[in-house]
């Protein structure tokens, strides 16, 4: 991604500029709208929502829905709130992100600095794995997790996310290391440095930015995953997205919209925070997956 | 003498080390991706129902699949969804990128706002839009209380229009990303050519039409590939937004596969539908990846 200059040769008149700002503002509203609706309605009592006025600011401000969504809302059969599922997601995401990023870094290193015949084909095979419709692996994966004795566990999900994530992490590190001067590595080799020494002493110290990209990308993807969670998680390993869906879709009792909204924001909060804090890296990760180089 | 053997072993180990390091990842990919693909494709030729069975039935699942109205509806919906989703995202993304590229003030803030939906889970997006579009408490209700009493917007509950609400939510989520892709493309264009064309009296409209947009070809291609693969994989959004309904109005191949395999116990047919999804994506992705990886050399 080369956001080289803000400088464009195009010149626009005053009327055109006003129109441009108007359109840009309009779309900013369009993108903000659902978030606004969720936020505003998550701090209203239920009768205020069912009485209409979704766009209005709350007349009575309450944090009750947030407390309920977090710790006492009915999810499935248990009134546990989203809290345990939040921790399930954390327990799944952290190891999966670390393992897939470490493997990606090593793979990228081998594929750029220790090239061998057929390495591009192998990389192509890894990369294609990111884009397959995961429906094609659901059935055998369910059986494999059973055979390995990790069906329905957090570790099973970690495995799944590592397997389908290393294509992307490898891509990031491969593209990043590809432009790293190979002469430095040759020189270190002549000095007698081995495979891991070179990686540890020369490449790793300058891998900070791409590691951040990889971690953010994996974190966002795995946190937001629903298909694998819904297919392979057991009762005590269900991630946040699955729990949120259960909360919202539950057909029993009154629909507590305010609790649903609070729950949705809770589910969105970690990735949203990451985006706000490190948006630049998030965008870099997105772009590397599309326009390579 | 012993020393020489030692050194030899060490260098040989060193030369094997890179491949050794790569091999766990490769093994995982080969088993969990390609092995599984072969297994699933094989299952699509068997009479598997609740559990995998190895009784070969040839093309039976595929011929059953193509006779199912449920599958045909999923495909029609996919056609409508993919066509609208891809074209709207592309047009919107390109337009917003061009507007943002006019030395706009607060560009960073606007970009952040446009792109944040991409950080959300489709389940969150689906939940938000579900209530926003709900005639009872959502937009319809709001505009009616604001005085537009005849306003009706019940698409999400309407069989003929529900699929468009999926398009709307999906566009909301990804169009900012497409915008970012085009913006990166625009920033890479050489200004000298533009200035030369301006000297020759070219209008802005012509600059974009003749020079700038044609130069964005790689961005168009990437956008198309990314969007089409996202479209075919769309699953969570439908689950959260409409659950495939009303009726089957928003069923897509991904939801079809899931319900046939896991709730209707028709694993053979489910595997056949997954195979068709894979083939469609492969037809788009393989040439793209091939071209991308070849250029690198």
Quick rundown:
In chain A, 70% of the residues lie in helices and 0% in strands.
Characterise the protein shown here.
The complex is a heterodimer of chains A (293) and B (297). Chain A has helices at 14-41, 46-50, 64-71, 83-113, 119-131, 135-148, 154-163, 166-178, 182-190, 195-203, 208-224, 227-232, 240-249, 257-288. Chain A is mainly α and 293 residues long. Chain A folds into two domains: 14-67, no CATH class; 83-288, MetI-like (MetI-like fold, Orthogonal Bundle), CATH 1.10.3720. Chain B starts with a helix and ends with a helix. Chain B is 74% helix and 0% strand. Chain B is an all-alpha fold and 297 residues long. The chains are: A mainly alpha (293), B mainly alpha (297). Chains A and B meet through helix 1, helix 4, helix 5, helix 6 and helix 8 of A and helix 1, helix 3, helix 4, helix 5 and helix 6 of B.
List the SSEs and their pairings.
The complex is a heterodimer of chains A (293) and B (297).
Chain A: H1 14-41, H2 46-50, H3 64-71, H4 83-113, H5 119-131, H6 135-148, H7 154-163, H8 166-178, H9 182-190, H10 195-203, H11 208-224, H12 227-232, H13 240-249, H14 257-288
Chain B: H1 2-43, H2 60-67, H3 69-100, H4 107-115, H5 122-133, H6 139-145, H7 162-187, H8 191-199, H9 204-215, H10 217-233, H11 236-241, H12 253-263, H13 267-295
């Amino acid at each position: 991604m080369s956001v080289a200059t803000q400088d464009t040769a195009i010149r626009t008149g005053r009327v055109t500029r006003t129109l441009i700002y108007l359109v840009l503002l309009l779309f900013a509203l369009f993108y903000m709208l659902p978030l606004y609706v969720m936020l505003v309605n998550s701090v209203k009592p239920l009768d205020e929502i069912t009485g209409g006025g979704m766009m209005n600011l709350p007349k009575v401000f309450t944090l009750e829905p947030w407390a309920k969504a977090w710790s006492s809302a009915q999810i499935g059969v248990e009134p546990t709130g989203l809290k345990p599922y939040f921790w399930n997601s954390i327990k799944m995401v952290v190891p999966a992100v670390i393992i897939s990023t470490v493997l990606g870094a090593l793979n990228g290193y081998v594929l750029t600095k220790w090239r061998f015949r057929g390495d591009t084909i192998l990389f192509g095979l890894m990369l294609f794995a990111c884009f397959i419709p995961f429906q094609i692996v659901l059935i055998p994966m369910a059986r494999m997790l059973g055979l390995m004795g990790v069906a329905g566990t957090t570790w099973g999900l970690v495995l799944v996310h590592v397997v389908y994530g290393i294509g992307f992490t490898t891509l990031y590190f491969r593209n990043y290391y590809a432009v790293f001067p190979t002469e430095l590595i040759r020189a270190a080799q002549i000095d007698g440095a081995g495979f891991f020494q070179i990686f540890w002493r020369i490449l790793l110290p300058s891998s900070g930015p791409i590691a951040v990209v990889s971690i953010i990308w994996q974190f966002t993807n795995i946190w937001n995953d629903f298909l694998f969670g819904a297919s392979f998680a057991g009762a005590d390993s269900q991630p946040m997205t699955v729990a949120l869906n259960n909360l919202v879709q539950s057909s029993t009792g009154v629909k507590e919209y305010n609790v649903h909204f609070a729950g949705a924001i809770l589910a969105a909060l970690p990735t949203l925070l990451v985006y706000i804090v490190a948006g630049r890296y998030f965008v870099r990760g997105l772009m590397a997956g599309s326009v390579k180089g | 003498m012993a020393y020489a053997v030692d050194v030899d072993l060490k260098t040989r180990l060193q030369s094997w080390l890179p491949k050794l390091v790569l091999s766990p990842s490769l093994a995982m990919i080969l088993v969990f991706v390609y092995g599984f693909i072969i297994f699933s494709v094989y299952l699509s030729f068997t009479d598997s129902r609740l559990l995998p069975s190895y009784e070969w039935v040839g093309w039976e699942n595929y011929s059953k699949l193509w006779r199912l109205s449920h599958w045909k509806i999923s495909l029609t919906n996919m056609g409508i969804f993919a066509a609208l989703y891809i074209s709207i995202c592309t047009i919107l993304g390109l337009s917003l990128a061009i507007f943002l590229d006019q030395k706009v003030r607060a560009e960073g803030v606007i970009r952040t706002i446009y792109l944040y939906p991409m950080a959300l889970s489709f389940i969150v997006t689906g939940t938000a839009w579900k209530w926003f579009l709900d005639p009872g408490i959502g937009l319809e209700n709001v505009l009616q209380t604001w005085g537009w009493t005849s306003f009706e917007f019940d698409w999400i509950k309407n069989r003929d229009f529900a699929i468009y609400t999926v398009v709307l939510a999906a566009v909301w989520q990804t169009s900012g990303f497409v915008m970012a892709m085009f913006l990166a493309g625009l920033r890479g264009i050489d200004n000298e050519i533009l200035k030369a064309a301006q000297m020759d009296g070219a209008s802005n409209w012509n600059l974009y039409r003749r020079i700038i947009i044609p130069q964005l070809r790689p961005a168009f291609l990437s956008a198309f590939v990314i969007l089409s693969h996202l479209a075919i994989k769309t699953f969570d959004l439908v689950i959260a937004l409409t659950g495939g309904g009303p009726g089957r109005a928003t069923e897509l191949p991904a939801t079809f596969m899931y319900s046939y395999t896991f709730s209707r116990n028709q694993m053979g047919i489910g595997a056949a539908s997954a195979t068709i999804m894979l083939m469609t994506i492969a037809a788009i992705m393989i040439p793209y990846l091939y071209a991308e990886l070849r250029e690198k050399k």
